[in-house]
Every structure is written in C-alpha cells, then in structure tokens.
Amino acid sequence: MLLTVAIIGGPHGLKGEVRLDLRTDDPGRRLAEGSVLETEPADAGPLTVARTRRSADATYVIFEEARDRTAAESLRGVRLVVESDEDEDDDDEGWYPHQLVGLRAVHVDGRELGTVADLEHLPAQDVLVVTEPDGGEARVPFVAELVPDVDTDAGTVTLDPPRGLFAADPADDGDDEADVADAADDEGDDPADAEDPTGRA
Fold first, then answer.
1. Distance between CA 39 and CA 122 in Å, rounded?
2. CA–CA separation, 124 vs 32, rounded Å?
3. Rounded-to-integer distance, Cα 4 and Cα 116, Å
4. Is 8 helix (H, G, I), strand (E, B) or coil?
C-alpha cells in the first residue's frame, strides 16, 4: 500500500525550493538528502531530495529534477509516496489515515461516539475527525489524554473527550441551571417576607 509522505506546495524563492505539507511522522528519514520518492501522479517523478530545510512552522525541499521556480511550480499538488513497511505498521507512536479510517470511536465509558473519518496532520498536532451518528463531525486532538487507546485488531479507538466536544455528550450545565433556579426562589421569597414582617393579615 502506498503511503503519502507529503504533498508539494508552492515554490519558495527562485532556485526550485518548495514548501511541503507533511503527512509523515518521520520526515528526517523520509526526506533525507539523496532519498528518492515516487509520486502521484506517477509521471511527475520519481523525485530525488537534493536539500531539506526546516523552519519553526514549515519544511522546504529542493529536488534534483526541479532546480528553478518554473519547474517547482509544475510540482504543486503532487504527492510524495512510499510503499508501507513493517516498521510503520508496528509503530505505536505514529498512525496513518488508512490505519484509522473506519474504526469505531468508543467513549471510555463504553458509549459509541461514531466512526473515524480522517486523520488531519495539522502544524500543532494531529486531529482525529469523527463522524457522529447524526452526521455531524467532531475533531479530537490526537493526544494520549484524549485518545488513550487505539486497537486496530478490535476495530476501535477509545476516546476520553471533554464534555461538549460531541453532540451526544453536551456540556453539563445542569448545576448552573439549578443555581439559577435557587436564586430565583430566594428572590421570590424575600419580597413576601418583607411585605408584612409581623405576620398580620
């Protein structure tokens, strides 16, 4: 199965450098200088990494086959792909969308929350996209506190989301409503008591 390492974005500068939308948890290995990557569409590659540069919020690459801005622009939207390997399938620290899509999302208390629709790789963190039974979508940051377990053999991903993240699990504002009701009762009692403090009719 082909896995997407990155999607090539627009050119940066005049010497063929392009910005990448990373889809791998191991860019250091996948995008090392000299690495040769297949592409989708296939006729855009293969591409050889000539140089990789990382900034605080982005990764840039120059390919041997695209050494100027015009050539780099022609690669916009091309996917860099690799064949999946055993190391990735056995890696508990990183997941790919094809491994998670279709898994049942289950609350830690056993309730069904929906089905995993996608895994979004965002700059800050990965996010699970879950389709709820009513057709809505919930986005859950893919961190251990909120996603304590992924069991592909059982076909489930266990979630411990904060209240309000899912439509079926709304924020609990019952206590606030009770406080408001109590306050209203208190306000209703005071005027009556003040009307005739002697208790006479």
1. 22
2. 22
3. 19
4. strand
Mean pLDDT by 10 residues, the chain (201 residues): 83 88 80 89 90 85 92 91 59 67 92 91 80 91 88 91 84 50 47 46 40
What three-state secondary structure class fits 155? Answer: coil
> Which stretches of 12-46 are assigned E, i.e. beta strand?
18-22, 36-40
Is the distance from CB of 131 to CB of 140 less than 8 angstroms?
no
Please tell me the pTM assigned to this model: 0.45
Which alpha helices (H) appear in the chain, and where do they start and end?
27-30, 69-73, 86-89, 97-100, 174-195
SS3 18: strand
| Measured distance CA(116)–CA(105) in Å, rounded | 6
116 bridge partner residues: 130
- pLDDT for 70 equals 92
Reference 49, options 57, 39, 41; nearest CA is: 39
CA-CA distance, 68 to 44, in Å (whole number)?
A: 15
CA–CA dist 9, 100 (Å, integer):
25
